[in-house]
Each structure stands twice: as C-alpha cells, then as structure tokens.
Amino acid sequence: MKLLGSPASAYARKVRIVLEEKHIAYDYVVDRPTRPESKVKDFNPLGQIPVLVCDDGSAVYDSSVIVEYVDGLSAASRLIPEAFADRIAVKRWEALGDGIVDATVALLLDGRREEDKRQGAEFQARQNGKITRGLAAMERDLGANEFCHGGAFTLADIACGVALGYLDQAHAKMDWRKGHPTLARLSERLTVRGSFAKTIGDPL
Ligand SMILES: N[C@@H](CCC(=O)N[C@@H](CS)C(=O)NCC(=O)O)C(=O)O
C-alpha cells in the first residue's frame, strides 16, 4: 500500500507514526495537492492528503479514518482501545490534537495572504482561542500521567504529540511550553521515540 502525503502535513505525520508503530510497510509518496501535477484528486475527491491507497486500488481518507483502518490491520501494538469508553476517550484526544492543527493551519494560511486580504483580528483570536483552550484541556487531562489515556501509549499520545510538534513548526511565536510544563515533558519523551524522530516534518 502507499501513502500520499507531504512532510509539511501534520495529518500525514500522524498516519506515518501509526504505520511505524504498527510496523506496517508502505510506500511513502510525496504529493502536494496544491500543485497542478498532483494525483491526490484521483484517489480522494476532496483533493486532500493524507490518502492511503490499498493494494487493491481502493483509497482510505481522512487521517482519522486511515489510522483506524491501519490499527485494525493487525492486533499488534493496538493504538485504539477496543473497549467503548476508552475508544471514545482516545478518539476525543485525537479530535483535540487535530483541532489544534486545523486552527494552526488556518492561521498559517491566513498569514500567507497579502495583508489587505487577511481575515482580521477576530478570526485570529478565534483560532488562537481554539489552540489555547485545547492546550489547557490537554495539560489538565494529562495531569500526572505518563500517557494521555489509560496508562499506555495510544493514538491519544500520537495526536497530542503531533499537534505539539506542529505548533513548534508553524506557530513557534506562541511558545506553548510556557504554562504547559506537563505537555512540555510529554513532548520531550515523544520526540525521542523512533516513530516521531523518523517522521519529523520539514520546516514550513
Ligand atoms: N481532516 C483532514 C484534513 C486534511 C487536510 O487538511 N490536508 C491538507 C494538507 S495538511 C490538504 O490536503 N489541503 C489541501 C486542500 O484542502 O485543498 C484529515 O485529517 O485528513
């Protein structure tokens, strides 16, 4: 199977980390959907990465569906617990991590527009609010625990670590470590984990 993604995409990084953790071999194809030569639309009508193209030619998207699919391919290193309540808790962490990435991407893209075409202070405050409230919730829910949920490494840690890594990359001026010492320690632990080290994104 092959994964269409790009080194700047946090959603693609989340999927790559899951594939690494599950020890599942895949071909990584760098495809930037905004480029005219992109093949992404042939596999995902939404024209977004990441897309997983299976050996039978079928495609799986978006990132949260891909990670669930990949986790279900083998029982080894389960990243999404089977028990209903645990599963929902882990998926909620994922939603929080992805939501922080969504808001960061929105700020990044807006900041790239010419100044008179930008959305303005209200828009920026709304996106920054998602990030700061998201970080506060993560800091609180992680508490004194080593892992985000259930005493073991799961997709919750992956989604949280990817969001923190993306903030470093795309919103460094926010200095998210200030006021979030617990998340800062989690990030330090995750950064040296093989799957995280191997998939570190390109500078934007
Ligand atoms: N919810 C989607 C978001 C994917 C997404 O926004 N991908 C961006 C790259 S980081 C993209 O393909 N943007 C191109 C576009 O939206 O046209 C997921 O989790 O897979």
Distance between the termini: 27 Å
The helix fraction, in percent, is 40-55%
Examine the secondary-structure arrangement and name the CATH architecture of the largest domain: Up-down Bundle
**Sheet with most strands:** 4 strands, mixed
User: Taking all residues together, what is the mean pLDDT?
Assistant: 96
Order of helices and strands: EHEHEEHHHHHH
Strand order of the largest sheet: 2-1-3-4
- Name of the top-level CATH class of the largest domain: Mainly Alpha
Structural class: alpha+beta
The tally of domains stands at 2
The number of distinct helices, counting runs of at least 4 residues, comes to 8
How would you sum up this structure, described in words?
The chain has eight helices and four strands; from the N terminus they run E-H-E-H-E-E-H-H-H-H-H-H. Helix content is 54%, strand content 6%. The longest helix has 29 residues, at 84-112. It has 204 residues and is an alpha+beta fold. The radius of gyration is 17 Å and the shape is globular. It has a four-stranded mixed β-sheet with strand order 2-1-3-4. Helix 1 links the parallel strand 1 (2-5) and strand 2. The protein folds into two domains: 2-73, Glutaredoxin (3-Layer(aba) Sandwich); 84-194, Glutathione S-transferase Yfyf (Class Pi), Chain A, domain 2 (Up-down Bundle), CATH 1.20.1050. The model has no long low-confidence stretch (mean pLDDT 96).
